[in-house]
Amino acid sequence: MYHTESLKIKESLIKSIDELVGGTVFKIGSISIDVEGKDGLGGLIEEWLGKWAENQKFIINNPKKNGSSQEFPDYYVGTDNHLLEVKTFDSTAGANFDLANFESYCESISNTPSRVDSDYLIFSYKLDGTELSIKNVWLKKIWEITCPSERWPLKTQTKRDVIYNIRPASWFSNKPRFKTFKTKEEFINALFETEKQYRGDSHKNTYLSNL
């Protein structure tokens, strides 16, 4: 189900997880500081992964080297350029990251259906003072880390009746309030039904009619 190169990367990370300890040093001029804040850590871990994977001789390519940091995907892996997304969260706070902008994701998988098969490499970390350590690593598909919610068939970030982002489930919990989807088809159906309810019947199939 997962791409071979993604699996190799994940297994290598898990094998060396006790060694994945460090921190962030910020320097301007002659002054450098050991960073204690968590802002921006996700982007730094994502960037670190690319360098680490290259040093480990994995087949990985960063499409953002000459472009926007917001472009999809985070990396291509393998000789066939399989899509790999990187997500991070504070292990003491739970998974509260955004998986994707809801509208953009609906449009994207309509135009590029293969996006739904992307691999998601997820890191949980702990920052103790200035010491950063990786606590766990998961490799998942999007339907394995999403779920329904009380309001929508797909859990989202919704403010004042406006859907912004797709939010993750507590896939690592033994007793989650909402269980993750079992198949890709369940996830796609929840995405479609959420869009349908959100936009109304007159606007259904806006992006997802071709799936």
Short overview:
The chain is 25% helix and 26% strand.
Task: Outline the structure in words.
The mean pLDDT is 92. 25% of the residues lie in helices and 26% in strands. It is of the alpha+beta class and 211 residues long. The chain is globular, with a radius of gyration of 18 Å. The strands form 3 sheets. Strands 1-9-8-6-5-4 form a 6-stranded mixed β-sheet. It has a 3-stranded antiparallel β-sheet with strand order 7-11-10. It has a single domain (4-210), classed as DNA mismatch repair MutH/Restriction endonuclease, type II (ECO RV Endonuclease, Chain A).
- What sort of overall outline do the alpha carbons produce when their principal axes are compared? globular
Q: What is the number of strand segments?
A: 11
Q: Report Rg.
A: 18 Å
* Beta-strand percentage range: 25-35%
- How many distinct domains? 1
Distance between the termini: 20 Å
Q: Which strand order does the major sheet show?
A: 1-9-8-6-5-4
Number of helices: 4
Strand pairing plus helix content: what structural class? alpha+beta
* CATH-level-4 superfamily name: DNA mismatch repair MutH/Restriction endonuclease, type II
What is the level-2 CATH architecture name? 3-Layer(aba) Sandwich
Run of helices and strands: HEEEHEEEEHEEEEH
